[in-house]
Amino acid sequence: MKSVLIGVGQAGGKLARELVEYDERMGFGAVRGAVGINTAKADLRDLPFETVLVGQDRVKGQGVGGDNELGAEVMQSDIQEVLASLDGRVTAGTESILVVAGLGGGTGSGGAPVVTKELKRIYDVPVYGLGILPGRDEGALYQVNAGRSLKTFVREADSLLLVDNDAFRSAGESVTEGFDSINQEIAKRVGLLLASGESVEGVAESVVDSSEIINTLRNGGIAALGYASAEAAPDAEGNINTVMSTTRRALLTGSSLPDATDADAALVVVAGEQDAIPRKGVERARRWVEEETGSLQVRGGDFPLSSGRLATLILLGGVERSDRLEAFMQRAKDAEKEEETTPERASDPGAQWANDELDDLL
Length: 362
Fold this sequence. Notes:
This protein has helices spanning 9-26, 56-59, 68-77, 79-84, 107-122, 140-156, 175-195, 210-216, 240-252, 279-293, 323-341; strands at residues 3-8, 31-38, 50-53, 96-102, 127-133, 159-164, 222-231, 265-272, 298-304, 309-317. The chain is of the alpha/beta class. Strands 3-2-1-4-5-6-7-10-8-9 form a ten-stranded mixed sheet, sandwiched between helices. The longest helix has 21 residues, at 175-195. It is found in: Cytoplasm. Residues 329-362 are annotated as: Disordered.
């Protein structure tokens, strides 16, 4: 699927960069352009593609400080500059636009829905979102921002692919420590999805192309992406159980949104050496996903790829009923109530010194 990426905010820009680098490294050619948008000038310096600094008249290139309402306002004010950056990038060959953002901060969570809405108004290709949910320990502000952004983003996008940071965090590792590895894992999954149907080694026996992705996401709402891989046997017959094993792990333990198994539609893609992919295994995996998700719209196919491993990629469309998602929304609501009951800081900067909370030294 030939796609143009738009990274909004710090997390969105970094993940868009990782996606571009993965696509180039694998030689897929699925990413046809990228733009980074931010209110913080420093966060745009390391992006290897065109960047747009918005909100200069309001925040002077210093960011919005986690205020996603301000992030939405400045994005709306400078939206024409953002749209101008896409001139010549979204061409007749573009099959989708992917707006990438972390949902916990200010610029990404506030600005991504604004950008998505404007893109849908102008272009006639699907505009998808790739949103990153904050981890449980990232603070109340991030939870509230993500909850508000999620409700808006999913309404504006043709479909919103969600990634839960906690799904990729190693035991004992903070989210901050794991950002780079998390981005790499996301890029591998999304990069393979976008590459489906592109010109690669071999010819798939059962073709997976961009129309399969579009049809899986056609009903909109929230989507999830599962992935798992294993060493492959040299012949297809020896890999039937391997395909089934990776399919189970991709859905049950390797999903970007854990516990999301009830879906409206699904796409199962098995990637690996053409001669090592068992047609019987792919069809069996497709039927198993059909049973597990309760969906009658489960598509499947193979993706020829030069590798000594077999990988199963599962795209789920319409996973709003996920227990994990419901738990997150409740967490966001609780965080919002907590913020509402927290006493406001005194407006007088000197008031902090005129209290009895700490004893004077003298």
